[in-house]
Design a protein that fits this description.
This protein is mainly alpha-helical and 175 residues long. It is built from 6 helices and 2 strands. Strands 1-2 form a two-stranded antiparallel ribbon. α3 runs antiparallel to α6. The chain starts with a helix and ends in a 12-residue tail after the last helix.
Length: 175
């Protein structure tokens, strides 16, 4: 009986350790999904007439900030060896996509793409170095840059929204 118990324990332990740990990917996916959801809510909260608003001539408009965020998802993924879909021109996205519905669709497509990239990343390769052009980071840090960049532009868009009398949907007063 002791041998059987030991054998079962060993088999169970082997099974647990043989499974790939996806805790990091799941955690990053959850946070990126949350921030992306708020970005989409903000993009939708603006009137289309506000999409070309910018606080000054030398910064991105609402539309450009949203599309910049979408394009960066493709850029960061490409640096990690995940090519963007053939129908996506992320380098020209800020200039070529107009109209609120098209901008939101591009953002959502980019969000789905980068979430797929995060899911494909292998924990065993997190420490591999990647040259992102602006700096060299390991793969895990690259995934964290995705989260940080999306959050950075969520903050920018919150400021843009407040400047235009738009209240972020999650900040609406509760009745």
């Amino acid at each position: 009986m002791k041998k059987l118990t030991l054998l079962l324990f060993c088999l169970f332990s082997f099974g647990v350790f043989a499974q790939e740990d996806t805790t990091v990917q799941n955690s990053i996916t959850g946070m990126v999904t949350f921030v992306q959801g708020q970005l989409v809510q903000l993009a939708d909260a603006f009137d289309e007439s506000q999409y070309d608003w910018r606080p000054s001539d030398d910064v991105r408009s609402v539309r450009e900030a949203i599309l910049h965020t979408a394009a960066a998802n493709y850029f960061l993924a490409s640096k990690m060896g995940h090519p963007s879909p053939e129908d996506v021109d992320w380098m020209g996205m800020e200039k070529s996509i107009t109209g609120k519905d098209n901008v939101i669709a591009a953002l959502k497509k980019s969000n789905e793409f980068i979430l797929g990239v995060i899911a494909k990343e292998e924990a065993a390769k997190f420490n591999e170095e990647v040259d992102f052009g602006f700096m060299k980071l390991n793969r895990l840090s690259g995934l964290l840059v995705v989260l940080d960049h999306n959050a950075e532009h969520k903050g920018q868009l919150i400021a843009y929204a407040r400047s235009n009398g738009v209240v972020p949907p999650w900040s609406q007063p509760q009745e």
